[in-house]
Amino acid sequence: MTQPETPQAPEMTRSNRDHVRLREQLQAWLQPRLAGATVGDLSVPGNGMSAETVLFDVDTGGETLQLAARLAPDATAMPVFPTSDLKTQYHVIKLVGNQTETPLPRLRWMETDESVIGAEFFVMDRASGVVPPDVMPYTIDSFLLDASDRDRKLVQDRSVEILAEIHKTPIGSETKFLEYDQPGATPLRRHVNHWIHYRDWVVGDRNVPVITDSFQWLEANWPTEADSRPSVLSWGDSRIGNLMYSDFKPVAVFDWEMAGIAPPEVDLGWLSYMHKFFQDITVDLGFPGMPGYLDPEEVRETYMAATGREVSDLHWFRVYNAARHAAIMLRINDRQVHFGEAEAPVNPEDAIIHAKPLREMISD
What we know:
- By secondary structure, the chain is α+β, with helices and mostly antiparallel strands.
- It has two domains: 19-125, Phosphorylase Kinase, domain 1, CATH 3.30.200; 143-363, Alpha-Beta Complex (Aminoglycoside 3'-phosphotransferase, Chain: A, domain 2), CATH 3.90.1200.
- The protein is built from eleven helices and nine strands.
- The protein has helices at residues 19-30, 86-99, 143-146, 149-166, 187-203, 209-220, 224-228, 264-284, 296-307, 314-338, 355-363, and strands spanning 38-39, 52-59, 64-71, 107-111, 121-125, 232-234, 243-246, 249-253, 260-262.
- Strand 2 (52-59) and strand 3 form a beta hairpin.
- Helix 8 packs across helix 10 and helix 10 (314-338) runs antiparallel to helix 11 (355-363).
């Protein structure tokens, strides 16, 4: 059977910023910190939609620094989330880095004065390695497809173990800033209420039955067992596309805008579900992809072996993550319509790529 040609990645605008102007602003800002520094051309990595990351080299006259800046999203570019708190992201990276052995880029500076470039931002060192792409997904074209079964399994296991390491962060006064300001007697209840608020912000007055039905299913099948155990510092956007690898081992963890306090199953479910999302797209396009990868039961067993923690209700958490992701995909489609890259569907549910698999998940 002949394999189809790899499709071109769709056009997806991430920012309205003028990178020539941004380069000049960063260079002026760096002068008091690195005298005589010259900033090279800016580039943008392929993954991520919620905030803008720019990569650049800095010539200090004696050495070349490879840096990255994480910028709050441009307010004119229809951000994916209603708010963006770069200080919280910076703080959580610093906290996890101080409390665990999680591989993280070295943080350099945090800038809260929005007049510098028009938004808050922080600067960190760039890590060296490869990242599984989102568009087109790594299940269609990536280093993982050329890897041996042993090396793919190594990526899977080490990625789960990264979650175990992040979850070692002590929960207490130092993590209070990550608690969602929502009603609820448990961290999971507050976490879900936070995402209900996000769902309502995205959906507005539209009728999107698959999202409504999914959240109703979540309430009707509440995971009492998982909710009753201690929560952890949750990375939030825990997928292999937010990890950098070298020799099939993670060397850097990125994107902390969804961090919070929640049961560990939130991260485990997102890690497993997001592979299903990309695998389903891949099969629909006529490619074999990576079936069986990041299987929830294998993820569960690896995590339990690494931590000694009990893991339960993973199907519920995969549905929870698919429901949250449905709201995110609807917002991303709204952005594409805003930028003229897509037409608004008559039925908003058509904007949710995984609507059918999500319905199957809540009917199981």
